[in-house]
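Morning - pyridoxal-5'-phosphate inputs below, output right after.
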Amino acid sequence: MNESASPVCYAAEGEMFACAAPTRFAVDQYRKDFPILAQSINGHPLAYLDNGASAQKPRMVIEAMTRFMENDYANIHRGVYQLSQKATDKYEAVRGIVRRFINAEYEDEIVFTHGATESINLVAQTWGRKFLNSGDEIIITALEHHANIVPWQMLREQIGIVLKIAPITPQGEVRVEDIKALITPRTKLIGFAHVSNVLGTILPVADICAIARASNIVTLVDGCQGICHLPVDVRALGCDFYVFSGHKLYGPNGIGILYGRRDILASMPPYQGGGDMIESVTFEKTTYKEAPHRFEAGTPPITETIGLGAAIEYVSTIGMARIARHEDEILVYASEKLSAIDGLKIIGTAPHKSGIVSFTMKDAHPHDIGTILDKCGVAIRAGHHCAQPLMEHLGLAATARASFGLYTMREDIDALVVGLEKVREIFG
Amino acid sequence: MNESASPVCYAAEGEMFACAAPTRFAVDQYRKDFPILAQSINGHPLAYLDNGASAQKPRMVIEAMTRFMENDYANIHRGVYQLSQKATDKYEAVRGIVRRFINAEYEDEIVFTHGATESINLVAQTWGRKFLNSGDEIIITALEHHANIVPWQMLREQIGIVLKIAPITPQGEVRVEDIKALITPRTKLIGFAHVSNVLGTILPVADICAIARASNIVTLVDGCQGICHLPVDVRALGCDFYVFSGHKLYGPNGIGILYGRRDILASMPPYQGGGDMIESVTFEKTTYKEAPHRFEAGTPPITETIGLGAAIEYVSTIGMARIARHEDEILVYASEKLSAIDGLKIIGTAPHKSGIVSFTMKDAHPHDIGTILDKCGVAIRAGHHCAQPLMEHLGLAATARASFGLYTMREDIDALVVGLEKVREIFG
Amino acid sequence: MTDDLRDLYQDLILDHGKRPRNFRAIDNANHHALGHNPLCGDKIDLFVAVDEAGIIQDVAFQGSGCAISVASASMMTEMLKGKTEAEAAKLFDYLHHSCTGKPADETGLDEDAVDRIKALAGVRDYPIRVKCATLAWHTLQSALKSKAKVSTE
Amino acid sequence: MTDDLRDLYQDLILDHGKRPRNFRAIDNANHHALGHNPLCGDKIDLFVAVDEAGIIQDVAFQGSGCAISVASASMMTEMLKGKTEAEAAKLFDYLHHSCTGKPADETGLDEDAVDRIKALAGVRDYPIRVKCATLAWHTLQSALKSKAKVSTE
Ligand SMILES: Cc1ncc(COP(=O)(O)O)c(C=O)c1O
Ligand SMILES: Cc1ncc(COP(=O)(O)O)c(C=O)c1O
């Protein structure tokens, strides 16, 4: 490795081709930013392949939180003193960081929530209750995470909407035609994942949004697995809502984002009631602030928002396009290696995939695979991945899933393969 | 200060009388646990008197979070590998820590939320929507925080309940008789603060709960300002719900608690839909887990929960009763000193008060007081304190508020007094 | 490491996992329950026939799951035949203690059953797998308590 | 420190804060707006009478607030009389720039008004108080735009 060239590679996107080894992604260097990756599990170096569930945190994020709590902490928005003013400024600055990261048009299109799950529930309960009537239709796809199913089912219970499910192909793709075929004059929203958390499929977001817009249908993109694997430009995608959680983007728990187009957010009633979202309160009548503050009741996750800002700065410095390319290489490598294992079947073979490989093995249950891999220092997830309807559609009770991050290296995949050989040895 | 005696004083509650200086609360020593307190503001040592808005974090909390993110972080509940298992165990252990801290009977009575505001909204939207009908009555008091007003107003909009307001006395007290006088056969819930965040009044919680229970009325105590100033025993109080936020108890942002009596929680439908709160999902029908998990949709604030556990362990080691006694001394000292300032009026003069002093000055607006104090290194809050109806009742647009914590010392009060003299100098 | 794993995946377990015994429905079952471990998707459909004297005449199951849960269910069906409900409860206690590393008292228990349970006790080093080992037994408890779901017909 | 504070609380400010000028309603106002700063509870009720030539004939206010917001409103009422809306807009620009520490161009502005605005510019060191200094002016903007709330009858 060319030590002196690395810093240039480490710089922003555009400069990449200036460095000595242009295609080299300095994964060993980035790994040093993540303290947890240095540990051993059962005598093996940790191969953390559960990024789909949550990503690890770089030192820069942990330190940003620590520094904030040690030096700058105060409640925000309501304090006249400097500490509170400084904290407010740092907190509000993250709105700008997020706006730039997803290329939203306005800062007030960025609502801070506690996570993607809350973001979707918020849309269902505010936009949904206000604008939908009994018999109105929502389309979601067969590969959604529970977070993009259950809130709509609850809304169905409450007001009698109809939930339509767009099918997937045997490869695990969502086809625009199949969604189009479900659209009727009563279709009001299409909600779908950017990237499937089980199959890794990248959905044709821009195309789906285009046909939705043509019929005046609102779109909600569950970006939990998109934001961490791909560069995201909400204006290029053309969606009305885009949601994600900080913790899958190398940021803290307890902070999430709801991006909503300005005019749509402005039309939505508040979600939770409390401090900081009101304009004025009397016992008779209460008026609410404008978006985004209207949707941010109570003391927000201040320190966590600062942490998310640091996480976005971290990945932006590396460059999301470069991270995507690196993860693609890992995906290709992993797919090749896994395919060569006898009795192993990869679940989800769409041509456009990102960062995730699910699989089953002939004689071993995914849960047993998980335990054996853990013994080999390899952390994967086994189960239904909060996507039971998809599992049922696939006729599977569970899959094993390896999911990648910017710090995933070929050695992690090699460790996975060694572990899977052990599975075959025991169960073969 | 007797250095060798201090460690014994630092030990658990019961041992206090064994130490050399039995009445001495080692505030200087505790202050060293809070890195932020060492800083200067405008050339003066920081006198942080805005604990009512949010408390500062001791090193133990910051380190617990850092350590967790550096060594143990993983998503919980769904992982077969050790890291996830360890994280789950640590996370779930905090339920026990909280249970013991408030003396709840069962661990499954402890629901993790993102804050007190969410806790109250959760009760309004689940218990409220299920059990209340148009015309049913809820009693709250005239001194509530917006977080215990607006969620009930939203419910009023949705289902037509009646909101009745219990008055306060000129001293700022809530009298049990006044609540009793509002009770009718249609009264279903009484919701009230443990301690007023503006006046400092300690409400007669056990007495109110007793009359409520006698009429089969559910009680919700907003414990945001109770939990940090007083020992809390939910069974002795006899309430059905008790809510608070971690960040006012020296813990992190983004984590809160909803305590609910087991049978009541069991009767409540879920709040948000998503992962981790379901038993099984099909597109046709979804079944939910039991409490508390039913109410914890999506990836929870894992690291923040660990931080809250550390905060509770920290204050428990000092002892809540000792903290309460220390803060009482500060309150008495502050009340004396402030009363001696010409033109200063203390707002809220109930005989039972805790940790908070609000005041106004004859010629200076609270906001100007806040700015001048900030220049003197003293951080207080000026405004309506998210209790606009109370302010209106008091006929005030705003008050200045100094609120105390375990680390507040007489010197902080002295700095406050010096600052207030400066206010008089400028505005007198 | 392999030795560790071999403690968990003993031949007896692997054998029952692959070729579960009494893997069928019982037509004249007077007890029945469904068991489900949402974590790994284990599902078990348990049938029990108890005679008037309170002796378990037949136990069988269907479903799917990981090697541990299937093996545990399979071995359970074998060891319960001819036992009373009280004896079954004692075996469950013993299994529960063994799998969670608590002192387990085997006095008065069927020796053969004890050996089988010992083979399962390797899960004690895998806390998250304890649920797999006990699923069938929890389902049994619930089946014996309620006669609701499936009747003798 | 006292000097710092004296920059903010200059005698002119303290005087207007205590004894606000034009503190009254205007019966024949043809523009009116309510201003509110929820942070500190400042409330201002602003009345403006503009003649047919577009000259501000009278400005007055009522309400309550901190010294900065009251002084700012009071001084504003004094400096606007006889000005056009365009001149008012220029003064607001100048005030806004002064209070946020941006380069502020005073060419062509009323000297007396400039002096008063300079007295207010001490808020530039107190970012959170900028809203107090500009509340009256924001309210003026909204009053001049809409004639909705109070009409001349
Ligand atoms: C009495 C009271 N209730 C509720 C709240 C709301 O708490 P949070 O903003 O943490 O949700 C607060 C704090 O602001 C409070 O003081
Ligand atoms: C596709 C997808 N949607 C939604 C979620 C829910 O995110 P969270 O649990 O952070 O709210 C996840 C992650 O679990 C996910 O992968």
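Note: Chain A touches chain C through 21 residues (CB under 8 Å).

O.
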